[in-house]
Specification:
The chain is mainly alpha-helical. The chain is 52% helix and 5% strand. Residues 462-482 are annotated as: Disordered.
């Protein structure tokens, strides 16, 4: 081990990159929240779930429906880990900071492996490539999601696979079954790799554990806690072919073209070298259900669906470079020398096209008057009030109020307070015209305007008007009802 000052500085690379990434992520996500870019679906949902754990009620999420148990939507008991932190700081920012920490710490095993086996240049390229990747940008640019608990677990597990530490790989993978119901299959993929390349006993046990956990969650636990009595997303997993036979599955993996673009973008930051590593088999379960789904949201590069793939891709990148260093020949030497700068160049070229590109604009660095006005209006809502709010305003209130989304799935007439952003409606869950109609209807049904500033309007049900009275006005056939 190099104990010189230079050697000590080199060993600081993984931790330094992780800390720098955490600070970038924390600023990015918290600032987006301050500017009202976050939403009830999904940050508000997860805050209500974590708040329920912190208050000892369990993950009950009114945004999804009266008494809705979040464990009946996706099996994610890992969220309970955040409860003690939320008790200390009961704000949506707690979730965003936790997510930033989880995603940033995943760079440590990738960098450490690269540093030990391939040197500082590879460690820097892999670490920054992972940390600034479009998959993480899309994830952190869209609220909070339970899937980020899986990111460091997968990173440590896949790097252990690359270093042939079979038991460590299995142990890091095992908790994935507490993050989401589909990740048991990823655990099984880790086990299959171990079975194929190393310890058969550990590999077989890991495969059986992963498959068994997913089956238990999908067929028993989720139906037991779901309001509908079954897993709510079976329809999304019915196959992209819309019911065609098995012979059509290969075509479903590459059509429409969005799927091919996504796969190419996954590999592009590694100069396509990750495809040469057998470690990519760990990505196949997630890629498989996404590409074979009939839900177009799963096929592209938006949202959080690629977060768990990024550590696999960059661990595979390190794996290829480590093996190339062990081989003789011009091609191997060229790969070792050229791949890190090419990877860095591709990562930087992609940066402006995804959410991290916002860091390069003025949008995150200034606070519009509309945002200041919205915060002032929201401050007038009393604690513990029941509020129907526009989707973008929901997570500004979920730490201190009982909040539902204005327009879906519950009737706004069940809330005493309504707060809507009429100047910048999202178009979900109500189209702008429909949202304006519903606001007008609320005013006719007994809600009075308390404050209005820059299009952010706060209404309160008039004294003597009950929820039943307002519901009668909104009933089918009533004037203005849609």
């Amino acid at each position: 081990m190099d104990r010189s000052p230079a050697g000590r500085r080199v060993r600081l690379i993984p931790g330094s990159i992780a800390l720098a990434l955490f600070l970038i992520y924390a600023f990015f996500t918290v600032r987006r929240h301050e500017l009202l870019f976050t939403s009830g679906y999904d940050l508000g949902i997860f805050e209500q779930g974590v708040r329920g754990y912190a208050e000892g009620r369990g993950p009950i999420v009114e945004l999804k429906g009266p008494g809705f148990n979040l464990l009946g939507d996706h099996f994610s008991p890992a969220l309970a880990v955040l409860a003690p932190f939320y008790r200390l700081l009961p704000r949506a920012e707690t979730l965003l900071l936790a997510q930033s920490a989880l995603v940033s710490v995943a760079v440590v095993p990738i960098c450490r492996w690269a540093l030990r086996a391939a040197g500082p240049a590879t460690a820097l390229a892999a670490g920054l490539g992972y940390g600034l990747s479009w998959g993480l940008a899309s994830t952190l640019g869209f609220d909070f999601h339970e899937i980020t608990f899986a990111v460091p677990l997968i990173a440590f597990s896949v790097c252990a696979l690359g270093e042939r530490r079979w038991t460590a790989a299995a142990l890091w993978a095992a908790p994935l079954v507490l993050v989401k119901e589909d990740l048991g299959i990823t655990v099984a993929a880790v086990g299959a790799y171990v079975l194929w390349r190393g310890d058969r006993r550990v590999g077989a046990a890991t495969v059986l554990f992963g498959i068994g956990a997913s089956l238990l969650e999908l067929l028993v636990l989720l139906p037991a806690m779901s309001p509908g009595g079954s897993f709510a997303y079976w329809d999304n997993l019915s196959g992209g072919s819309g019911g065609r036979n098995l012979l059509a599955l290969p075509l479903d993996l590459i059509t429409p073209g969005d799927k091919v673009v996504t796969v190419l973008l996954l590999l592009a930051p590694t100069a396509l070298l990750a495809a040469r590593s057998p470690l990519t088999v760990v990505a196949l379960p997630t890629l498989g259900w996404r590409l074979l789904s009939n839900n177009p949201a799963y096929w592209g590069t938006n949202y959080h669906y690629s977060a768990v793939l990024m550590p696999i891709v960059f661990a595979a990148f390190v794996d290829v470079l480590v093996k190339a260093r062990r081989r003789d020949g011009t091609a191997a030497r060229w790969v070792v020398r050229a791949a890190p700068p090419v990877s860095a160049a591709i990562t930087l070229a992609l940066l402006p096209a995804f959410a991290f590109g916002q860091l390069l604009t003025l949008d995150l660095w200034r606070t519009p008057a509309r945002v200041e006005a919205a915060r002032s209006v929201l401050a007038a809502v009393p604690n513990d009030a029941r509020v129907a709010a526009s989707n973008r305003l929901v997570p500004q209130l979920t730490n201190r109020c009982e909040v539902i989304v204005f327009g879906w799935p519950q009737k706004w007439s069940t809330a005493e307070w309504i707060v809507v952003d009429e100047e910048q409606p999202m178009g979900w869950p109500l189209p702008p015209d429909k949202e304006r109609q519903e606001v007008a209807l609320a005013k006719r049904s007994g809600y009075l305007v308390v404050r209005s500033d820059h299009g952010v309007t706060l209404l309160r049900r008039a004294p003597g008007t009950t929820a039943d009275t307002a519901a009668d006005v909104t009933a089918p056939g009533a004037p203005g009802a849609g």
